[in-house]
Specification:
heterodimer, A: mainly beta, Immunoglobulin-like, four-stranded antiparallel beta sheet, 0% helix, globular, B: mainly beta, six-stranded mixed beta sheet, five-stranded antiparallel beta sheet, 11 strands
Chain lengths: 115, 111
Protein backbone atom coordinates (compact mmCIF):
# COMPACT_ATOMS: atom_id res chain seq x y z
CA UNK A 1 0.00 0.00 0.00
CA UNK A 2 1.40 3.42 -0.99
CA UNK A 3 2.36 5.65 1.90
CA UNK A 4 3.54 9.18 2.55
CA UNK A 5 7.19 9.10 3.60
CA UNK A 6 8.77 11.61 5.96
CA UNK A 7 12.25 12.00 7.33
CA UNK A 8 13.72 12.29 9.80
CA UNK A 9 11.25 10.78 12.28
CA UNK A 10 12.86 12.62 15.18
CA UNK A 11 15.00 15.73 15.32
CA UNK A 12 16.58 17.42 18.31
CA UNK A 13 18.19 20.79 17.77
CA UNK A 14 19.26 23.84 19.70
CA UNK A 15 17.51 27.14 19.30
CA UNK A 16 18.86 29.39 16.56
CA UNK A 17 19.92 26.37 14.50
CA UNK A 18 18.45 25.51 11.10
CA UNK A 19 16.39 22.35 10.55
CA UNK A 20 14.85 20.77 7.48
CA UNK A 21 12.18 18.13 7.04
CA UNK A 22 11.50 16.08 3.94
CA UNK A 23 8.26 14.60 2.60
CA UNK A 24 7.59 12.27 -0.31
CA UNK A 25 3.84 12.06 -1.03
CA UNK A 26 1.98 9.13 -2.52
CA UNK A 27 2.90 8.80 -6.19
CA UNK A 28 0.58 10.81 -8.40
CA UNK A 29 -0.82 12.96 -5.62
CA UNK A 30 -0.85 16.55 -6.82
CA UNK A 31 -1.75 18.23 -3.53
CA UNK A 32 0.65 18.26 -0.61
CA UNK A 33 0.17 19.75 2.86
CA UNK A 34 2.46 20.56 5.76
CA UNK A 35 0.88 20.70 9.22
CA UNK A 36 2.18 21.49 12.69
CA UNK A 37 0.68 19.61 15.61
CA UNK A 38 1.16 20.38 19.28
CA UNK A 39 0.98 17.24 21.43
CA UNK A 40 -2.63 16.21 22.05
CA UNK A 41 -4.10 18.90 19.80
CA UNK A 42 -5.34 18.99 16.22
CA UNK A 43 -2.95 19.70 13.32
CA UNK A 44 -2.77 23.25 12.00
CA UNK A 45 -2.09 23.85 8.33
CA UNK A 46 1.18 25.60 7.54
CA UNK A 47 1.28 25.39 3.75
CA UNK A 48 -0.58 23.71 0.87
CA UNK A 49 0.90 22.96 -2.54
CA UNK A 50 -0.85 22.11 -5.78
CA UNK A 51 1.90 20.53 -7.89
CA UNK A 52 4.83 22.95 -7.46
CA UNK A 53 2.69 26.00 -6.65
CA UNK A 54 1.77 27.29 -3.22
CA UNK A 55 -2.02 27.37 -2.81
CA UNK A 56 -2.15 28.56 0.80
CA UNK A 57 0.67 29.69 3.08
CA UNK A 58 -1.31 32.18 5.13
CA UNK A 59 -0.42 30.44 8.42
CA UNK A 60 3.27 29.92 7.63
CA UNK A 61 5.56 32.14 9.76
CA UNK A 62 7.50 33.37 6.79
CA UNK A 63 10.17 35.15 8.79
CA UNK A 64 11.62 31.78 9.79
CA UNK A 65 9.77 29.07 7.88
CA UNK A 66 10.07 28.22 4.19
CA UNK A 67 8.69 25.40 2.07
CA UNK A 68 9.34 24.27 -1.45
CA UNK A 69 8.19 21.60 -3.86
CA UNK A 70 10.39 22.37 -6.82
CA UNK A 71 9.42 19.53 -9.17
CA UNK A 72 5.93 19.04 -7.84
CA UNK A 73 6.79 15.76 -6.19
CA UNK A 74 8.67 15.72 -2.88
CA UNK A 75 8.82 18.71 -0.58
CA UNK A 76 11.08 20.28 2.04
CA UNK A 77 10.05 22.39 5.03
CA UNK A 78 12.80 24.48 6.63
CA UNK A 79 12.99 26.44 9.86
CA UNK A 80 15.76 28.96 10.36
CA UNK A 81 16.39 29.88 13.08
CA UNK A 82 14.52 27.39 15.25
CA UNK A 83 12.87 28.70 18.43
CA UNK A 84 11.77 26.86 21.57
CA UNK A 85 8.11 27.29 20.58
CA UNK A 86 8.70 25.36 17.37
CA UNK A 87 8.84 22.08 19.27
CA UNK A 88 6.00 20.02 17.80
CA UNK A 89 5.12 17.24 15.38
CA UNK A 90 5.39 18.25 11.74
CA UNK A 91 3.05 16.24 9.54
CA UNK A 92 2.95 15.94 5.78
CA UNK A 93 -0.19 14.81 3.94
CA UNK A 94 -1.21 14.36 0.31
CA UNK A 95 -4.35 13.99 -1.78
CA UNK A 96 -4.89 13.16 -5.44
CA UNK A 97 -5.95 16.75 -6.21
CA UNK A 98 -8.20 19.60 -5.24
CA UNK A 99 -11.87 19.02 -4.52
CA UNK A 100 -14.03 18.51 -1.51
CA UNK A 101 -13.97 15.47 0.72
CA UNK A 102 -10.72 14.02 -0.62
CA UNK A 103 -9.05 11.79 1.93
CA UNK A 104 -5.81 13.28 3.18
CA UNK A 105 -3.17 10.60 3.64
CA UNK A 106 -0.72 11.47 6.39
CA UNK A 107 2.88 10.48 6.87
CA UNK A 108 4.25 9.39 10.26
CA UNK A 109 5.49 12.89 11.04
CA UNK A 110 8.74 14.41 12.27
CA UNK A 111 8.92 15.06 16.00
CA UNK A 112 10.99 18.23 16.53
CA UNK A 113 12.44 19.15 19.91
CA UNK A 114 14.15 22.51 20.24
CA UNK A 115 16.42 22.88 23.28
CA UNK B 1 -7.37 29.51 15.50
CA UNK B 2 -9.33 26.28 16.05
CA UNK B 3 -12.86 26.69 14.69
CA UNK B 4 -13.92 23.17 15.66
CA UNK B 5 -14.28 22.46 19.36
CA UNK B 6 -14.26 18.86 20.51
CA UNK B 7 -15.56 17.54 23.81
CA UNK B 8 -14.54 15.99 25.99
CA UNK B 9 -10.84 16.80 25.69
CA UNK B 10 -9.86 13.67 27.63
CA UNK B 11 -11.79 10.47 28.25
CA UNK B 12 -10.68 7.44 30.25
CA UNK B 13 -13.07 4.49 30.35
CA UNK B 14 -13.18 0.76 30.97
CA UNK B 15 -13.38 -1.76 28.18
CA UNK B 16 -17.01 -2.52 27.27
CA UNK B 17 -18.33 0.98 28.02
CA UNK B 18 -19.98 3.23 25.46
CA UNK B 19 -18.86 6.77 24.72
CA UNK B 20 -19.68 9.77 22.55
CA UNK B 21 -17.32 12.45 21.29
CA UNK B 22 -18.70 15.75 20.06
CA UNK B 23 -17.39 18.16 17.44
CA UNK B 24 -18.99 21.61 17.33
CA UNK B 25 -18.58 24.74 15.24
CA UNK B 26 -20.37 27.97 14.48
CA UNK B 27 -19.36 27.56 10.84
CA UNK B 28 -20.93 25.43 8.12
CA UNK B 29 -18.77 22.79 6.49
CA UNK B 30 -19.28 21.01 3.18
CA UNK B 31 -17.83 17.81 4.61
CA UNK B 32 -16.76 16.47 7.97
CA UNK B 33 -14.10 13.84 8.49
CA UNK B 34 -13.08 11.86 11.56
CA UNK B 35 -9.51 10.67 12.03
CA UNK B 36 -7.81 8.53 14.66
CA UNK B 37 -4.17 9.07 15.56
CA UNK B 38 -1.94 6.77 17.56
CA UNK B 39 1.17 8.02 19.38
CA UNK B 40 4.05 8.77 17.04
CA UNK B 41 1.97 8.28 13.91
CA UNK B 42 -0.03 10.46 11.54
CA UNK B 43 -3.84 10.63 11.62
CA UNK B 44 -5.75 7.92 9.75
CA UNK B 45 -9.13 8.62 8.19
CA UNK B 46 -12.10 6.78 9.72
CA UNK B 47 -15.03 8.30 7.83
CA UNK B 48 -16.24 11.21 5.69
CA UNK B 49 -19.78 12.60 5.95
CA UNK B 50 -21.08 15.16 3.48
CA UNK B 51 -24.86 15.39 3.88
CA UNK B 52 -26.63 17.13 6.75
CA UNK B 53 -28.22 14.51 9.02
CA UNK B 54 -26.11 11.72 7.56
CA UNK B 55 -25.34 8.73 9.75
CA UNK B 56 -22.56 6.28 8.96
CA UNK B 57 -21.64 3.12 10.82
CA UNK B 58 -18.25 1.47 10.86
CA UNK B 59 -18.50 -1.69 12.96
CA UNK B 60 -18.82 -0.38 16.54
CA UNK B 61 -18.41 3.27 15.52
CA UNK B 62 -21.37 5.47 14.55
CA UNK B 63 -20.80 8.90 13.01
CA UNK B 64 -23.44 11.59 12.60
CA UNK B 65 -23.30 14.90 10.75
CA UNK B 66 -25.63 17.57 12.13
CA UNK B 67 -28.59 18.72 10.06
CA UNK B 68 -27.06 22.20 9.68
CA UNK B 69 -23.61 20.75 8.89
CA UNK B 70 -22.04 22.62 11.81
CA UNK B 71 -21.52 19.72 14.20
CA UNK B 72 -20.85 16.01 14.34
CA UNK B 73 -20.64 13.18 16.82
CA UNK B 74 -18.79 9.90 17.10
CA UNK B 75 -20.28 7.14 19.21
CA UNK B 76 -18.34 4.02 20.12
CA UNK B 77 -20.21 0.99 21.42
CA UNK B 78 -18.48 -1.49 23.70
CA UNK B 79 -15.08 0.20 23.59
CA UNK B 80 -11.97 -1.93 23.31
CA UNK B 81 -8.38 -1.21 24.30
CA UNK B 82 -7.54 -0.97 20.62
CA UNK B 83 -9.78 2.11 20.37
CA UNK B 84 -7.28 4.08 22.42
CA UNK B 85 -5.96 7.11 20.58
CA UNK B 86 -6.47 10.75 19.67
CA UNK B 87 -9.73 11.32 17.79
CA UNK B 88 -9.84 14.32 15.48
CA UNK B 89 -12.70 15.81 13.53
CA UNK B 90 -11.89 17.92 10.49
CA UNK B 91 -14.17 20.18 8.49
CA UNK B 92 -13.79 20.85 4.80
CA UNK B 93 -14.96 23.88 2.84
CA UNK B 94 -15.01 24.77 -0.81
CA UNK B 95 -13.03 23.14 -3.59
CA UNK B 96 -9.54 23.54 -2.25
CA UNK B 97 -9.79 20.55 0.07
CA UNK B 98 -8.43 22.58 2.95
CA UNK B 99 -9.30 20.95 6.26
CA UNK B 100 -9.77 22.65 9.62
CA UNK B 101 -9.01 20.21 12.39
CA UNK B 102 -10.75 20.08 15.75
CA UNK B 103 -9.09 20.41 19.12
CA UNK B 104 -8.90 16.63 19.58
CA UNK B 105 -10.22 14.08 22.08
CA UNK B 106 -7.72 11.81 23.79
CA UNK B 107 -9.39 8.46 24.51
CA UNK B 108 -7.91 5.81 26.79
CA UNK B 109 -9.64 2.46 27.13
CA UNK B 110 -8.42 0.25 29.97
CA UNK B 111 -9.08 -3.38 30.83
Amino acid sequence: EAEVAQSPRYKITEKSQAVAFWCDPISGHATLYWYRQILGQGPELLVQFQDESVVDDSQLPKDRFSAERLKGVDSTLKIQPAELGDSAMYLCASTPGLGTAHTQYFGPGTRLTVL
Amino acid sequence: TQLLEQSPQFLSIQEGENLTVYCNSSSVFSSLQWYRQEPGEGPVLLVTVVTGGEVKKLKRLTFQFGDARKDSSLHITAAQTGDTGLYLCAGGRGGGNKLTFGTGTQLKVEL
